[in-house]
Amino acid sequence: MALIPVRWIAALVISLGALSTASAASLDAGLLPKIQGATFEVVAAKPVNDPLTYEKPLPLDLLPFQERNDKYHSIGTAFAIGHNRYVTAGHVLLAGVDSLWGAPSLRDASGHVYAIDKVEKFDLRRDFVVFSLTGDPAPSPLDVDTKPVLNQEVYAVGNALGTGVVIRDGLYTSDTPEQESGAWKWMRFSAAASPGNSGGPLLNKEGKVIGVVLMKSANENLNYALQIGDVLNAPSGQAVLDRRVPYQLDIFNTTLSNQIKSQFALPLGLSEFFTEYQKRFDGYVDAQLKEILAKDADKLFPHGESSNRLLYGESWTNTLPGLIARSSTGEWGLNIKEGNRMSLPANGYVQAGVLNRTFFFHLRRPDTLPASKLYSDPLALAELLCKLGIFMRPVGSEQIRITSLGKPVTDTVYTDQWQRRWQLRVWALPFANTKVVTYSLPVPDGYAMLMRFAMPGNSYDTMADMRVLTDFVAVGYDGTLAQWKDYLQNTSLLPGAFKDIHIDIDYQHRFSYASKRLTFAFAPDLQKIEPDSVLTLGAGFLPDHGKVVWDVNTLSMRASQQDPDRLHIERNVAPPTDMDDSFKSYWDKLQKRRHPYEGVAYTTDGETNIAAPAGDGQNASSNVLYSVFYVMAGTQSQDTMKPKLDLLLKDIQIKEH
What is the pTM of this model? Predict the structure, then answer.
């Protein structure tokens, strides 16, 4: 549910000073002091500590003097309507939920800042809040008019673009029913409104409040306000959460359009209000997750016929993590969207991809970085990510590269339903009031990763969504034998299925692999066994005696990354009878040892292949068969290929039967 910022939000420019008007000749100048005294900026304190490091000192001299020296960000507008009673937009107040900035406060034209004391009224759908202040400055409140007249002159008062409170004129043009049920009417007005105006008063020419400015029109200069009468008539002592909040999960192409409906008693202090609000919003997220996963639960991957093409036809060897998602036809498929490949020092790199709101990475660690260091030290990961140049801080006209994210604010291990262990780390970007959320799965050559950006208030639902997505991520386990040796020593981070797998590497002498499904070994007369030899285990979702498990179904090895010659062993399962002929034909050929599984060399795509079923225990009645391939570059003779296949088959034992 969290939105991903497409660029970092620069700090707002704040300019306090005398209230100004734009074409406001009809508004009595004698009212300006009262309007000025009753109208406030809503501000949030800038973070004092910055965990980030940069490629060079920040060129803060490029910023305007006021922005450079202000200790606050300006986020909206508020105004007084009674004795220690203030109004702003609900969404302005909610900017403080889970924020990396200070709590929302009010600042007057003289620069004095007042903390919010108690929240008295709140309505999420109508988007307003009424509250009191600690150390109330007791301004003369604005008068109100609860029966505004169409086509009268109006004045939008607010902290437009963070440049100080200004007045801009226009007309009250129309009333528009709110979209869900027409429960009330929005006021439409032509006075200009800009970011920062939210929560400010909409005045008539007598200086009386007729509405609260809430939304800017996206396509035309007709903006939205809520009539002040709706604020005054709302029940006191109550927070009302009644709003349609769409929910979408990346594995589905459908969206839920439910409403969050809840209430809690007021008044509450600001931190207590945020706690109660967050509790209910997080509960809504949990309910949406539960509902969307429960829809057609019998067809949710890996269940149902719509999963079969993946389960019976997929080799899970992709090193860039892919997401299993349901298409518009209801079929489950593996989605992999490769983006740029970015180099890191010492043979490291990051292969990037993006699907919807989630970034996917395969991070190949530099040769100089031990696996134990990468997995145990989040600073090492943070610095590698920053080398990609994807984290920048805008300062004036420059983009300053971030070189380290510092220590994460969250560093835990999450185990998905397949017993894979993901390292959950959350880093703070205080200047942008944004968090970086990563789920990192240790693999032999580094990490398979998911990453999202979370705006204030969205940390919980971002992490909840990503937790679910981990269950639908497919990735192969690939690395040199040296990398595998390092990786396997980190036993606490290995997938549960790997506890049954034993890999023994004796360079230049012997390689062996043993699991509960098969054992396999070979010597250098088949293929070189060196530290830079490459082993790939295709680990994915396997039909297994009426259920689906996560385990290894493919083993592939080559003498080095550059060597095209390779061996390949793959687990195959008899397809269901309702699957199409291509699956049946594939299984029939393997079962009856027909081409290409008859042990006869053949050439395709510039390579010579030879293949056969593996293991004496396999027979025509088995529903699990293993196929074995050996592949060499160029055109090779049967006399060259058959001994390789025989060596490969000699020490394979199938244990599933």
Answer: 0.91
